[in-house]
Every structure is written in structure tokens, then in C-alpha cells.
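Blackboard transcription, Thursday session:
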Amino acid sequence: MPYTKKLLLQIKQLKRFFLENKRMPSYRELGALIHVNSLSAVQYLIQRLSMLGVVQKDSLGKLIPGRLFNPVKVLGTVRAGFPSPAEEENVDTISLDDWLIENKESTFMLKVSGDSMIDAGILPGDMVILDKGKNPKIGDVVVAEVDREWTIKYFEKRGEEIVLTPANKKYPLIHPKEELRIAGVVTAVVRKY
Amino acid sequence: MRKIEFLGSWPKAIVHLDGDAFFASCEQAVHPEYRGKPVVTGKERGIVAAASYEAKRLGISRGVSLWDVKRICPDAIIVPSDYETYSLFSKRMFAIMRRFSPVVEEYSIDEGFVDLTGLQRPFHASYEGIARQMKQTVEKELGITVSVGLSVSKVLAKIGSKWKKPSGFVSLPTTAIFDYLAKTPVEKIWGIGEKTAAYCEKLGIQTALQFAEKNEDYIKKHFIKPQYEIWQELNGYSVYSVTAEEKTDYASISKTKTFTPPSKEKAFVYAQLIKNLENACIKARRHHLVAGKVVAFLKTQEYSYSGLEATLNRLSSFPMDIAPLAKEMFEKIFEENVPYRATGIVLVDLQPEGNVQMSLFESPLRVSRLQRLYQAIDTLAQKMGKHTVFLGATAHAHKIPQHILERGDVPVRKLNRLDGETIRKHLSIPMLMNKGTQR
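(Written on the board underneath:)
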């Protein structure tokens, strides 16, 4: 059964009545609401509404609300009359992508293979997200090239010298001998269970 | 060359940015153990698709067979092409270029033009400064090197980017053009082919400068429009604009695929040919084009080509229309007991679809049925992947992989699918790779 413009208007009036009076109207009140005098016209409307599930009748034949106030897809236009808390808040949302990735073009991923950063909560099998465009600051977790392999370490300073420190006592500090290649600064760790 | 003087140094500012040994550079960017070593991509095809500069220095270039590569340099690192990663790098390269100017032309996967004209003020920098910053940003954020030419026209910008590879930067304001042109042989100019170069030699033109210095009447008398345009570009007048839109006015669409091992089996080679036809038609339909002619060719193991051209009764982009013609041509060029290694289809005389003239003896009903059929096929392809529905003749080509692979012939990225990734859907973030993470 289609929702005609007229029917949608009548549902809206019914809703307003319910919100104002905290109860459903009697047949006669409904008649007044929709400007008809004939009870059979009211009955016809109620029959249509109950077929749509908008209202129901109790054992005494009195009206009780059906899906009147539940979100139903087809009632979308009607629902718009009610302020939703989310709309009141009026916030924008961001995707997980936007949250995890600052600069789309310079972001890479690396699968963690060793346990040298275990005390920093970076475990073997984790995926780290790194930004190649960022310049590392002291204390950052970075991906660096050591002995032709990518390795994840803290970027730190001992005196004047830059050192790569692991987060696991089993491993030694790394003192880069010549040029230190930093692939990027780690900005997030992703672990999927 | 009096004209140049009143143009000013920068009547326009056009950058040509060109990835250095792009595919090989991408490999080196994600595999630290490849850096500084001769790296060659194309393992799955048996020939070099791209060679790193370390390999180029040893004389290895595009198209060389891998057997020769191993002979020239036994230590060369030969890897299968990882197009997924290359295209991620490519997209990022263009995205970075767009940070500097909205007018970016993606000329191919690894090179593009940028129009910087008028942007000094918003950047508070000279054109040279902006172009250098663009180069540095690409190199830093992607970990590859690029060569950049900056000049007042596309042809000149391209001379600049080719000047000193890898990682070159050449700026050619109008005042500097002639020094560079004097050192550029005429055949190195973008748009001048072998034949034109040979013709130039007959006219006593050897360098780009000699060509540029001819007067207008001479050029108009001896050459045709394309060369006249190049002449203008060389003289600092920009006639080719940087076009930011996706290229849709293809002159032709060609699809060629190599397969290994080479095959003598007629049905298989035919299936390969028709698969190319399907691919070419998919591309034509995507760009709303129809073809008037079709070329089919086969390539033998000895790298010799044989091909034929045929005209369609009605412009079309439907394999079911074109396959019968392709079959006829195939029957004429296929020879028994010759091993073939590649097939190709070229659709030519392309025109926008929509104004297709029916031929006299054809039922319009059949045509509209075909249209509906291919609409449905394209919709299915969008949902379920390319070649969800294909012609029966190509089953041979779809059933087995294009190349009989050793395990090492699959890109590392494909072997390392993440939890939750499927064959068709991967994270669009390039992965750094360690030796340990493989296989």
C-alpha cells in the first residue's frame, strides 16, 4: 500500500497528537484531527494505518502506537521532524583511514618481523604505518635501513650522536656508521585479530 | 632569433617530470637490499620491462632478454613486475604534482607535465624554486628519484628532463634555450621520429638548434604541421597545452600480450588474440569509442611479426562483431609449427559512439541486442571483475595463467596478502618489504 502525501500528513498529525498528549487519540479525536466527521472514514484510515503497521489496536479496540516512532526506512521523510541527538551535536565524522593517515601520498606500511620493539607494544606480525614525508624527532619510533634491511627502532640521541634504540633489553643499541637512511616516522601500529 | 627577446624569460612555465627507471626505482624504494644494485623487472615476461640505472650502466636496457641479462651481469636482481605497487607510486606522484598546480597532465604512468604559469606569487618562489620543491617532495615522500625539465613549452621541458638522468634538474628559460638546442641532436626531440630525422639530415639539419633557426617559410615549405608545431615550441612559443583531463581522444587502442612458454597450438594462440580483442573493446567502451578498422598481429619466438588489417562493416566496440574478422585474419597469418610468443590487436579509426551508421543489410534488432548484452557484461565486470563473461574462444587463454610461473615469478606483495585482503581487493598503501617477509 503506497504512502500518499495525504496519508503522510495524517501520520504526522497523529504523531504530533501523541507527543502533545502522551496518548493515542480516540476515534472521534482522530476524526477531528483529520477534519472528517464520519466515523467510517476514521475507521478506514485506521485500517490502512494498521495494515502499514503504523498503529495497532489493543484488545478493547483502542489505538496504541505501532511503528509510529521507530525508524522505518519508508518513514524517513516523517522522521525528519524529530531532532536526533546526533544532529544536535553536529559533528563531522572521519574514517579510520583519515584518522590513521595524515599524508596519503607519503604513507607506507611495513609488517613487523622481530621482537626488538616488544616493550613499546610493537609485536611481530603487527603492521606499522609510517610517514616518509616527516622528519624524525628525538624519541620518535622510526623505520630505518640497517644492513640493507628495514628495522623499527627509537630515534634517539646519545650526546651528539644519533642512535637507534630497541625496546627490548635483549638487543643492543645501533650506532649508524655512515649515512643513516630513515624510511619514515612510525605514526600508528595496526594489529588485526 | 629576434623573436625570443620580447617574450621575456618565462612567457610560460611548464614542467616535465619523468620517473627515473620508474618500475625498478619503485622496487628499490620498497626493498632496501636492492638499493645500489642492478635491478631488472619483467621476470614473468622473459624480457626486461625496466632496468635500474645500475643495470643500465652495464648495458642492460628495456627489451633485452633475461638470458642476456644473466650473461652480462650474473648478479643482477631479476624480479617479476609488481604493477599494483607501481601504479600506487604513480598515482601518488601525480597527487604530489597536483599540490603545486591544478594543471597536471598524466602523460604516462611515469611522466607528466605541470603548468606553473602565474604561480610564483602564491608560492612566493621562482618557477625554478617551485619546480625544485616539487622534485624534492616527490623524491622524499616516495623514495624514488625523478628528472625534471622546466621551460616555456612542452617540447623544451622534455629536452630539459632528458638532459641529465637520473635525478636531473634543468631549467631552460628563453634566454638559455639555444645553448641546449645546439647540443641536442634533432632525433632526440620529442615528436621527431626516425624518418623525419633522416629527412632532416638530407636537408643538412643535424642539431635541434639548426632546426629551430630555420625561418618560418622554410619550415612551412619543407615540413608538415606537426613539425611546424615542434619548430614553434622549440622557439619558445607554446602550442601544446598541458591538458589536465584524462585522455579520451585515442587515435588507436592496442592490446598486446606476451605468453610464456611460446606456443604452436592454434586454438591457444587464437584464444590469446581474442582475449586481446576483448581487452581492447573493454577500453574502447570505457571511453565510449567505436572502431572502424581492426589490426591483428602475431609475433613469433624469433620476434618477427605478421599482421593484417580489416575494415568493419559497421563501427563497433563489441568483440562479437569483430571476432569473425579477427578469425579470418588469424587463419591467413597463422602458420603451423611456428612457435608464437605474443599476439596483438589494434583498434583504429576510432570515433565517438552514438553516431553509428547501420549497414544496409543488418537488422537493427541484433545491434540493440548486442548493446544490451555488452551493457550487462560491463556491469557484471564492474561487480565481479574483468572477464567475468568472455567469448568461448578465449576460454583457453583464461583457464591458464599468461605465464607458466615459477614460484618466484609472483610479486612479493601478492605473496604477502594481508589478513582480510582478497585477490581483487588490496590495501592501497605500498608495503615496505624485508628479505625475511617473503615466501
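Lecturer's comment: The CA atoms of residues 1 and 74 of chain A lie 12 Å apart.
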